[in-house]
């Protein structure tokens, strides 16, 4: 097959890029969920200053193109005397953007929690922090698995943009392969199929995981 | 004054970049929505073999990075078919198809949300299927779809920034130029980001108003 | 004891509790009766600190529930059972029951679980410890809710219409358990519409009307022709309930 003949010598190289994509996304989703959880808690808090700051963050990062955010960090951080690699910058940018979306998701998870359940926990003597950590957050995270999963999938797709700041993740290595082989169509077509199958598999896994986690929580 | 400082002319550059971004956004929105609508109508009539094809193509578009799609169109298609492709036309093709894929999914859901009973009733009255689609399904599907469509358009506006990567002189590309020249990344990218932000807000705001208007007019029409 | 003095609660401009004074002594079982909207739930929610009184005082064994420390202390010695169970949906029955003993009383997990299993066995749910609320029937959920309250070994139990979300059959299951509890010298404040049951278990009955305590009498006196029944409003209330 023609496509295979083009790709074959570069399989190892492409897989390296793929591994870097997965690694970046894994780090970024962890960052995004932690950040999103914190920001969502701030947005749900009683203090209006915290609420305002948290809302401003998620509003800005959801309404400015990721590429612009990425350039802001990539060119801006060295100005601040912060010299980190392109990969690290990329992971931070992905986490920041992802966190804005995750905070939205978790916030609506928090708001969907039955007030009575929270009252039961408070009445039993748990302090506010424990109520939040043992009751509110775990329930919100459970109902958020699926929408956080969509954020993750978007993160995977967005991670291809890291190639613009010289990170050799999957899209970055594909660019190199396309240039070396003079067969950009074959290379990018394969790349498109790779991404599509990866994200499709990911979304199936997320649906399954969501079902598992929530099998006893439907309607509760 | 340093050679690299900002000049008043930079405002013209920014305006030009914004113009390119908005022009591409508007044209690809129109083309994408029409194409998506076309897909949905074709899908509704269940032609053999066509539906799986539409679904496969739109799913592939939705589940792969726009940047890769752009590369495929801009670098791949000319190499494969031995034709010339300008950055602008590659951008137009890619973004239109991309918008179409999202629009298709939303409009299809809108059509499918309509009660089978209503369609049966309309058929019983002797309306032809195309009439049913226009008079019964269309308006309701529109009211159902408008909110999600505004949502994807806000997203697509941000996606236009990617065309700078293949050399279209849009707002982000202007940002790149100013960034390299002035070496003031904070100012440059904050300004560029703010312009996108304001556009997104205006779009979301007018979308919400349009949605309210459409819903209200149908609510009134039903009485 | 629970001491409530001149308790006032207003929401915006409506006065829901209008000077309630009530003492509940250790060992007493006080039933609160009253029409819908008379303020019964609000009274309970002021005692357990879910609502902040607008005026007056509430102390539970001397702990002022309007202060942070007082409320924390009072919550260690009292427990609430809710009308809609309010179980934690992401935890098993066992998890629901052991959370507060471990987190608040500082019990070891093993000890709390052992105690929880014993409680579950006592209410006839021995085999259900590892089930999630969603897998239990309404009556079973409320029994878990009662176990969750009992696991705190509270001196005071507040119960707000704990059977009104249940059908008549399962209501029986839950009332049987409460009956048992009543004989174990736990102090209870019991809001209910089950007048017959209230009559059989409570030592005292208070009747609320528009945010005020209309009467506060020992149970026998309340149901006596020359006692509570002599009050026209109470006679009317009881005859309405009987009709349902
Ligand atoms: N959070 C609140 N905000 C405003 N009004 C409230 C609030 N909670 C209760 N009320 C009002 O206070 C009044 C008493 O309510 P409460 O729930 O205490 O009555 P109740 O005696 O328990 O009635 P029921 O038998 O129906 O449970 C009602 O008129 C109710 O509308
Ligand atoms: Mg009530």
From TrEMBL, chain A:
Molecular function, one GO term: transmembrane transporter activity
SUPFAM superfamilies reported in the protein's UniProt record: MetI-like (SSF161098)
UniProt cross-references to PROSITE patterns, sorted A to Z: ABC_TM1, PROKAR_LIPOPROTEIN
Subcellular location: Cell inner membrane; Cell membrane
Pfam families: BPD_transp_1
Keyword line: Cell membrane, Membrane, Transmembrane, Transmembrane helix, Transport
Gene3D superfamilies in UniProt: MetI-like
Keyword match Transmembrane helix: yes
Bilayer topology annotation: Multi-pass membrane protein
TM ranges: 12-39, 60-77, 83-107, 148-167, 187-209
Stored CDD domains: TM_PBP2
One example of a Gene Ontology biological process annotation: amino acid transport
GO cellular component: ATP-binding cassette (ABC) transporter complex
ABC transmembrane type-1 domain sequence ranges: 18-206
Origin: domain of life: Bacteria
Recorded family membership: Belongs to the binding-protein-dependent transport system permease family. HisMQ subfamily.
Protein name: ABC transporter permease protein
TrEMBL record, chain B:
Span of domain ABC transmembrane type-1: 18-207
GO terms assigned for molecular function: transmembrane transporter activity
One Pfam family hit: BPD_transp_1
Location in the cell: Cell inner membrane; Cell membrane
Transmembrane segments: 20-45, 66-83, 89-111, 132-154, 186-204
Keywords in alphabetical order: Cell membrane, Membrane, Transmembrane, Transmembrane helix, Transport
NCBIfam families cross-referenced by the UniProt entry: HEQRo_perm_3TM (TIGR01726)
UniProt xrefs under PANTHER family: BLR6398 PROTEIN (PTHR30614:SF34), MEMBRANE COMPONENT OF AMINO ACID ABC TRANSPORTER (PTHR30614)
Protein name, entry field: Cystine ABC transporter, permease protein
Originating species: Candidatus Rhodobacter oscarellae
UniProtKB/TrEMBL annotation, chain C:
UniProt cross-references to SUPFAM superfamilies, sorted A to Z: P-loop containing nucleoside triphosphate hydrolases
GO cellular component: plasma membrane
Transport found in the keyword field: yes
InterPro entries, alphabetized: AAA+_ATPase (IPR003593), ABC_ATPase_HisP-typ (IPR030679), ABC_transporter-like_ATP-bd (IPR003439), ABC_transporter-like_CS (IPR017871), MetN_ABC_transporter-like (IPR050086), P-loop_NTPase (IPR027417)
Gene3D superfamilies per the UniProt record, alphabetical: P-loop containing nucleotide triphosphate hydrolases
Topological type in the membrane: Peripheral membrane protein
GO MF entries: ABC-type amino acid transporter activity; ATP binding; ATP hydrolysis activity
Subcellular location: Cell membrane
Superkingdom of this protein's organism: Bacteria
Name of the protein in question: Methionine ABC transporter ATP-binding protein
Homology family: Belongs to the ABC transporter superfamily.
Alphabetized UniProt keyword annotations: Amino-acid transport, ATP-binding, Cell membrane, Membrane, Nucleotide-binding, Transport
Pfam families, alphabetized: ABC_tran (PF00005)
Span of domain ABC transporter: 2-235
């Amino acid at each position: 097959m023609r496509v295979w003949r083009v790709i074959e010598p570069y399989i190892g190289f492409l897989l390296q890029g793929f591994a870097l994509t997965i690694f970046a996304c894994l780090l970024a989703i962890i960052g995004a969920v932690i950040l999103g959880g914190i920001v969502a808690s701030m947005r749900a808090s009683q203090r209006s200053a915290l609420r305002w700051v948290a809302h401003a963050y998620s509003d800005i990062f959801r309404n400015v193109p990721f590429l612009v955010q990425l350039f802001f960090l990539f060119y801006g951080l060295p100005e601040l005397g912060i010299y980190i690699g392109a990969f690290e910058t990329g992971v931070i940018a992905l986490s920041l953007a992802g966190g804005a979306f995750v905070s939205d998701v978790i916030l609506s998870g928090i708001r969907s929690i039955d007030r009575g359940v929270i009252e039961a926990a408070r009445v039993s003597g748990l302090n506010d922090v424990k109520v939040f950590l043992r009751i509110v957050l775990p329930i919100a995270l459970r109902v958020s698995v699926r929408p956080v999963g969509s954020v993750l999938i978007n993160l995977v797709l967005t991670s291809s943009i890291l190639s613009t700041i010289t990170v050799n993740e999957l899209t970055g290595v594909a660019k190199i392969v396309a240039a070396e082989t003079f067969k950009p169509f074959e290379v990018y077509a394969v790349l498109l199929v790779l991404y599509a199958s990866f994200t499709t598999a990911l979304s199936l896994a997320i649906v399954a995981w969501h079902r598992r986690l929530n099998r006893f929580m439907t309607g509760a | 004054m340093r050679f690299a400082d900002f000049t008043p002319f930079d405002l013209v550059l920014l305006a030009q970049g914004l113009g390119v971004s908005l022009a591409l956004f508007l044209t690809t929105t129109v083309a994408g929505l029409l194409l998506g609508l076309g897909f949905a109508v074709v899908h509704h009539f269940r032609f053999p073999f066509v539906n799986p094809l539409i679904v496969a193509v739109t799913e592939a578009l939705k589940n792969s990075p726009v940047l890769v799609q752009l590369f495929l169109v801009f670098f791949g298609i000319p190499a494969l078919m031995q034709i010339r492709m300008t950055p602008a036309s590659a951008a137009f093709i890619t973004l239109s198809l991309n918008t179409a894929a999202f629009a298709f999914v939303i409009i299809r859901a809108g059509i499918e949300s309509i009660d089978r009973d209503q369609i049966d009733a309309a058929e019983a009255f002797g309306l032809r299927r195309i009439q049913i689609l226009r008079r019964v399904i269309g308006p309701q599907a529109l009211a159902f779809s408008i909110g999600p469509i505004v949502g994807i358009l806000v997203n697509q506006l941000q996606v236009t920034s990617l065309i700078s990567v293949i050399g279209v002189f849009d707002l982000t590309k202007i940002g790149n130029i100013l960034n390299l020249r002035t070496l003031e990344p904070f100012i440059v990218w904050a300004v560029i980001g703010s312009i996108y932000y304001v556009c997104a807000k205006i779009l979301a705001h007018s979308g919400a108003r349009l949605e309210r208007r459409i819903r209200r007019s149908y609510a009134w029409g039903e009485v | 004891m629970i001491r409530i003095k001149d308790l006032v609660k207003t929401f915006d401009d409506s006065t829901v509790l209008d000077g309630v004074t009530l003492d509940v002594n250790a060992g007493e079982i006080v039933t609160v009766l009253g029409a819908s909207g008379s303020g019964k739930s609000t009274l309970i929610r002021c005692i357990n600190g879910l609502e902040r009184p607008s005026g007056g005082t509430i102390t539970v064994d001397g702990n002022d529930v309007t202060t942070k420390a007082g409320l924390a202390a009072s919550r260690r010695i009292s427990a609430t059972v809710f009308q809609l169970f309010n179980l934690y949906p992401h935890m098993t029955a066992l998890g629901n029951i052991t959370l507060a003993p471990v987190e608040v009383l500082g019990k070891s997990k093993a000890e709390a679980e052992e105690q929880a299993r014993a409680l579950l066995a006592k209410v006839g749910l021995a085999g259900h410890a590892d089930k999630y609320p969603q897998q239990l029937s309404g009556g079973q959920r409320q029994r878990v809710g009662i176990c969750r309250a009992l696991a705190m070994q509270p001196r005071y139990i507040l119960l707000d219409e704990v059977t009104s979300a249940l059908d008549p059959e399962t209501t029986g299951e839950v009332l049987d358990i409460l009956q048992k509890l009543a004989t174990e010298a736990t102090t209870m404040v019991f809001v209910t519409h089950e007048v017959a049951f209230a009559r059989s278990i409570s030592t005292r009955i208070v009747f609320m009307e528009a945010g005020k305590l209309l009467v506060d009498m020992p149970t026998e006196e309340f149901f006596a022709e020359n006692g509570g029944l002599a009050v026209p409003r109470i006679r009317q209330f009881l005859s309405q309930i009987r009709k349902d």
